Automatic annotation (TrEMBL):
Protein name: Beta-1,3-glucanase family protein
Listed Gene3D superfamilies: Beta-1,3-glucanase, C-terminal domain, Galactose-binding domain-like, Thaumatin
Signal peptide: 1-30
Originating species: Streptacidiphilus cavernicola
Lineage of source species: Bacteria, Bacillati, Actinomycetota, Actinomycetes, Kitasatosporales
Region (Disordered): 401-426
Annotated Low complexity bias: 401-420
InterPro entries assigned to the protein according to its UniProt record, in alphabetical order: CBM6, Cellulose-bd_IV, Galactose-bd-like_sf, Glyco_hydro_64, Glyco_hydro_64_fam, Glyco_hydro_64_N_2, Osmotin/thaumatin-like_sf, TAT_signal
Keywords: Signal
Length: 561
């Protein structure tokens, strides 16, 4: 199957000029007018936040539709006689003030949809003949929204399911997070933490200083010099084709040289199975399927220009997997894609898609599309930051910080306390994993790590550990560190997640883990978490797409910065 993200965004990809959207025709349409309640929570520091909901109306011939300002009435823009017409209805949904209850809206069946959030001022959407919709563009300096802070997420809601994802494919800006409620439980994607945009910008500046390339030029500031957004390399190259010229050439040359004498085996993860290719005369050929000329850096970053333009579905699947491997620079280490990849080895080359690396590292749970084929992955793991259900009951979308998080940081947060201020166990000391107050599915064992003792092992998908009375004090913690080991088999990996109050509570932060080389081969792994204060019951939960054990834990701790 071709990348879902690619299909969803095909009609709304960003270009240098405002995007012209034309109606997509389908052979069948939905037969019901059911709506999904969606709560829009304002976690920013601004009392002026607007949301815009739009998509293809599956009940009206897939025509473009907006929700009006009341959050429930659909507006279908008519086709104007000339380009650049204004919307004929107020479609700016005003969110409630920070700290107030979320604003509830009702979303009908819409496909290829987006929900935009703007801070401080409204957005301008224009209508062109068709009708087509000119979306806000971050790569067009004359766009009327160019000085506004805004972000968007993507969704499709039809008679079969809800699918929604966080996207950084075009740019990163105002944090957005999801909490989807279903009869089977909650699904969360926490997105960038409070202050995450500046973290991304700082890391890009550091990378530019390291390799002398154009990473700092992705940063867009407002009139006061604060970071407004960070462009993806593809979006930045759209506006300035000179950026990153030749940046990946050396790596791509090494890949093409390797596969002159080595088979590249790509699992299409579809009915075509695996396909084997070799490079000959400068072309990577998959006999009976198709071939790829050597790509440019710009083609790798955008995943859609030659040679990644394809004429059939099997080549589309090969394109997605080849483009993903080139962005993650894993082809020199792994000749079997994508199942031979170890996520911990992504972006390990000195020259790689550092924007994708930094966005994933900064995001609270490391999820969210950072390039168009970021949903290509080994079996059992995902990176795209999606929620998906055939039976959704409600969706909460928070703007400004991860759900439950803070939009401010304490002035004293740089000082790392050694204990809390209440009566519980200090969050900033070493908490032994075996000191849990409750658990499910785990066992303890003798530990050979430094200082010995015991660790908790036999941990697999769905298991959890709880620790009551963990005191974060008034300053709070924004970082989590755990001492972990894994002897999991190839292809087996999972997430270690931090939650509060229950095994299904909101994920404050997480990190992914594959084999470290053995069940007693220990590593200290950090993760960013939503700022947490006071005395709490902390849950460590474990999620994996495979039933096998994937992690041992010796100890963990929290940090203020």
């Amino acid at each position: 199957m071709i990348s879902r993200r690619k299909l969803i965004s095909a009609s709304i990809a960003a270009v240098a000029a405002p995007v012209l959207l034309t109606t997509i025709r389908r052979s069948a349409s939905a037969s019901t007018t059911a709506t999904l309640p969606v709560q829009l929570a304002n976690n920013t520091s601004s009392a002026t936040v607007y949301a815009y909901v739009l998509g293809l109306d599956l009940n009206q011939g897939n025509s473009w539709a907006f929700l009006e300002a009341d959050g429930s009435t659909l507006y279908h823009p008519p086709s104007p006689s000339a380009p650049g017409a204004a919307l004929g209805a107020d479609c700016a949904i005003a969110l409630n003030a920070p700290g107030s209850p979320a604003k509830t809206i009702y979303v009908p069946h819409l496909a290829s949809g987006r929900i935009y959030f703007s801070i401080g001022s409204k957005l301008t959407f224009l209508v062109n003949p068709g009708p087509g919709i000119a979306m806000p563009s971050v790569s067009n300096p004359t766009d009327p929204n160019i000085a506004t802070a805004y972000s968007f997420c993507e969704f499709t809601y039809d008679t079969t399911q809800l699918y929604a994802n966080i996207s950084y494919v075009d740019f990163a800006s105002v944090p957005i997070s999801f909490n989807l409620q279903t009869p089977q439980g909650a699904q969360t994607v926490n997105g960038l933490p409070a202050g995450g945009l500046e973290t991304v910008a700082s890391a890009l500046r550091a990378q530019a200083a390291t390799d002398g390339s154009d990473w700092a030029k992705l940063i867009v500031t407002n009139s006061s010099g604060a970071t407004l957004r960070v462009l993806s390399p593809n979006t930045a190259i759209t506006a300035n084709p000179a950026l990153f010229s030749g940046y990946l050439d050396s790596y791509i040359d090494q890949v093409w040289t390797k596969y002159q004498s080595t088979d590249l085996v790509i699992d299409t993860q579809a009915s075509w199975g695996t396909t084997t290719g070799r490079v000959s005369n400068g072309v990577l050929s998959f006999p009976g399927v198709g071939s790829f000329a050597k790509p440019s850096t710009a083609a790798v970053f955008n995943c859609s220009s030659a040679p990644f333009t394809t004429g059939n579905d099997e080549m589309g699947n090969l394109s997605a997997r080849l483009a993903a491997a080139l962005n993650r620079t894993t082809l020199l280490a792994d000749a079997n894609q994508p199942d031979g990849e170890n996520p911990s080895a992504f972006y390990a080359q000195a020259r790689t898609n550092h924007y994708a690396r930094i966005v994933h590292q900064t995001s609270t749970d490391h999820l969210g599309y950072a390039f168009p084929y970021d949903d290509v992955h080994p079996a059992g793991v995902d990176f795209e930051g999606r929620v998906q259900s055939a039976s959704p009951t409600s969706l909460t979308i928070s703007v400004g910080a991860a759900q439950g998080g803070s939009t401010t940081t304490s002035a004293s947060a740089s000082a790392t306390p050694t204990s809390g201020t209440g009566t519980g166990t200090g969050a900033f000391g070493t908490i032994q994993a075996e000191s849990y107050s409750g658990q499910s599915g785990t066992q303890t064992e003798t530990c050979s790590d430094t200082n010995g003792g015991q660790d908790v092992g036999w941990i697999a998908n769905g298991d959890w550990l709880s620790y009551s009375g963990i005191d974060f004090g008034s300053t709070g913690a924004t970082q989590f560190q755990a001492r972990v080991a894994s002897g999991a088999a190839a292809g087996v990996s999972g997430l270690v997640q931090v939650r509060l109050n229950s095994p299904t509570g909101t994920v404050l932060g997480s990190f992914s883990l594959a084999s470290t080389g053995g069940w007693q081969t220990w590593q200290t792994v950090p993760a960013t978490i939503t700022r947490t204060t006071g005395v709490q019951t902390v849950y460590l939960t474990f999620s994996s797409g495979q039933p096998a054990d994937f992690v041992n834990i010796n100890w963990f701790t929290f940090k203020a910065s």
